[in-house]
Design goal:
- With about 290 residues, the chain is an all-alpha fold.
- Helix content is about 80%, strand content about 0%.
- Helix 3 runs antiparallel to helix 4, helix 4 runs antiparallel to helix 5 and helix 13 packs antiparallel against helix 14.
- The longest helix has 14 residues.
- Keywords: Repeat, TPR repeat.
- It holds the Pfam family TPR_16.
- This is Tetratricopeptide repeat protein.
Length: about 290
């Protein structure tokens, strides 16, 4: 009786015996090189083993045989996203949504992928659809606020962050975000109100401490700014934004050597390409070679 190598490999995969799954799925592929699902399942085995290049190779082979194999598209997009190959992740996500526009998993993937490639309008369409079914989902409301913030629309971002806060009254990070966007909009009194609210609830929270410090710098209160941002760094020494803001404050009070060290640390920790460019511009302006 002929063995069904694919089924044997599939069973091993379901039982988390990934190496044995690969062995039998490879036999299935050798027996039938057009077996798209065998490639896809072997890709999953490699995925679970964290052998991501091999996983991508197998998902790609599966898709060359069947371009509508959504599991291969979804998993390949997820890997691309973790590897910061965001354009490739976006391409796969767009294909998934074209194949099944109402699939919730694909929509949530889009919410992660599209902002990474600055396709904020696409992300906004998705979050609007998801909110129709979940109008009080604070995570979705937060995401909508964040998308507007990314679109440089602080007023609309504040509206949505406030909606989230009406549901989750003690959400310190929503308060922080309102303060941050109010600072960008030049509404310093509103920013102060929400930073103060956040810090009353959580006095050691590094993000409102840092952002409140930057607000104080903009007001010209660099002594208080230094104190707040320093406290933020004491509570989270990996916060690249706090290093950047401390560098700006140190420049303002004439401590150039320390400012240079903090800006270099901000660049080393990094965040996004745009953020790195901002820090590099500060370094180029104040510390020309």
């Amino acid at each position: 009786m002929k063995k069904d190598y694919y089924q044997i490999g599939f069973n091993f995969l379901n039982n988390s015996k990934f190496h044995r799954a690969i062995t039998y799925l490879t036999k299935a592929i050798e027996e039938d090189p057009t077996h798209a699902w065998a490639y896809e399942r072997r890709g999953m085995a490699y995925y679970y083993l964290c052998q991501l290049p091999e996983a991508i190779e197998n998902f790609t082979s599966a898709l060359s045989l069947d371009a509508t194999l959504t599991s291969a598209l979804y998993n390949r997009a997820s890997i691309y996203l973790t590897r910061e190959e965001t354009e490739k992740a976006a391409s796969d996500t767009e294909t998934l949504l074209a194949l099944d526009p109402n699939n919730t998993d694909y929509r949530y993937l889009g919410l992660r992928v599209f902002p990474a490639v600055k396709k904020y309008r696409k992300a906004l369409l998705i979050v609007n659809d998801l909110l129709k079914a979940n109008p009080e989902n604070v995570d979705l409301i937060w995401t909508k606020g964040w998308i507007f913030a990314s679109l440089e629309n602080p007023q609309e971002a504040i509206i949505w962050y406030k909606k989230g806060l009406q549901i989750d009254h003690t959400n310190v990070m929503l308060m922080n975000n309102i303060g941050f966007e109010a600072t960008k909009a030049g509404n310093f009194s509103l920013a102060e109100e929400y930073f103060e609210r956040a810090l009353r609830l959580s006095p050691e929270e590094p993000y409102p401490l840092n952002n409140y410090g930057y607000l104080e710098h903009l007001r010209g209160n660099n002594g208080r700014a230094h104190k707040l941002i320093n406290q933020s760094l004491e509570n989270d020494c990996s916060n690249s934004f706090a290093y950047k803001n401390m560098g700006i404050v140190l420049l303002a009070i004439g401590q150039r050597e320390k400012a240079f060290e903090h800006l270099q640390m901000a660049l080393e920790l990094g965040y996004t390409q745009d953020y790195d460019e901002e820090v590099n511009q500060l370094l180029s302006k104040h510390f020309p070679e």
